[in-house]
Amino acid sequence: MSRQLGNYERYSLTRTLLGMPPCVALIAELTHPVEAGDLRQVINTLLARFPLLSCKVVGVDTVEPKFESVEVTPDDVLVVRKEVDEESDPTAFLEVGLAAGKEIDITKGPLWRVVGFEGIAGPSGKLSRVLLVVNHVVSDGSGSKTLFAELLRLVASPASSNTNRIDESTIAFPPTLEETIDVRPSTFHLLRVIAIELLVPKLPAFLRPAPPSPHFPGKPLVHPFIQPTRLLFATIPLSTINKLKTLAKEHGVGTLHPVLHTCLLAAFSSINTSNPPLQINSSSPISVRDPKLGHPTATGNFATPLDWTPPPHLSSPATPFWELAKAYITDLNSPSGRARAKGTMGMMKFTPDGVVELEGGSLETGWETFWRAKRDSENPWSATFEISNLGVIDVGEEEGVKNVTWAQFASPISASMAINAISLRGGALSLTLSWRDGTQTNENINTFWDTFKRILADPDQLSLPTVKISDLVD
Known about the structure:
The protein is of the alpha+beta class. The protein has helices spanning 7-17, 36-49, 74-77, 90-102, 141-156, 177-180, 187-199, 238-250, 256-269, 321-333, 335-346, 366-375, 442-457, 469-473, and strands spanning 2-4, 23-35, 55-58, 66-69, 78-81, 112-118, 126-135, 229-236, 282-287, 303-308, 355-357, 363-365, 383-393, 401-408, 415-424, 429-436. Helix content is 33%, strand content 23%. Strands 8-16-15-13-9-10 form a 6-stranded mixed sheet, sandwiched between helices. It has a 5-stranded mixed sheet with strand order 5-6-7-2-14. Strand 6 and strand 7 form a beta hairpin. It is globular.
């Protein structure tokens, strides 16, 4: 069984081929350690339910790469480790998981791994933490969250995973984003991007328009591609989260997400000391996964990115917090904002293509050539930050899960930092920060992260409708 990759999936393949694999890792601490054998049984069940978990990618140096089914056993997926201090925060385990993801050979498969951690002082074979790492080629963040939830539910009830392997010939690969969602960009968007990306660079210098205003943090101190991903962790208690959600409803923004986004804007303003200040812009993945369109609950790529910059009248430190939050969530939820996000993904169709022979006789496509140029440019960042909020994972204490956290590789061709959020059902909010080491000063990173945590930790300061961004960082 095989299927050609959609453009979204091919973009993830290209990043992998260029040495920047877009991997997602989720880690959970269990109330009761489990046997490695039970985990193998669970993996077998997941392999039967989701065909993309039993595949590799073929034709990676052609313009039509494909998923192809491959025989996968639980031992191809499961890795057991006993090398991380039990007292470490989740980032130590996530770093192990992301390293495992980097080692995945997409031309052989499978494109995911499960890592079980034995407690250093515990009995051999008993796994106290379980981690899932997935290459984005096979699943987006939302699909990976659902896959992890299903894994944890099966771990809590091993008997329910004792099912026979389903014949893969009876199951089709899920459809692509492009087959099921209209992601065509508007004519204006299309012409604008083609002009900026393809035409303007070829004009003589005296005919090129002035470059757009730079966004924060400006050029990286060292090139991101050559630097490792670093992680920081924070947790926000459920009581605090409930207060923030209440304030969100009282001030007309509905949910926690715009509150997190606006707190991030405020935290970045504390280190945006250029005169005049640089623009702060963001990217927010929006899930368009819909079972009515044949999308599976887990695996597959069904997300589109909303790029957002505060309008000029809301860009100063004197901007009211809740006015800024409302402007963001209004655009995020609007038909025009959703169409713009889909159109951004639809632009992948216009990536220059064709097969190119390199020195030494190896082949690559126009996609690798195009995105390598982006990767190696002087300032490859596309945004100040990305906020990937996976929301609530549908497991909790009933399934024997103490906590859950997730992170992703910091991409050298997207945002300068990625903030990754998730919470258990009825549990605290876990946050991680991903960035490329050395690309910004440690002082800036720590000041930003401490400011963000401090704002979230004190909901009372957000209770006034007139509270300004400057009130939170002065």
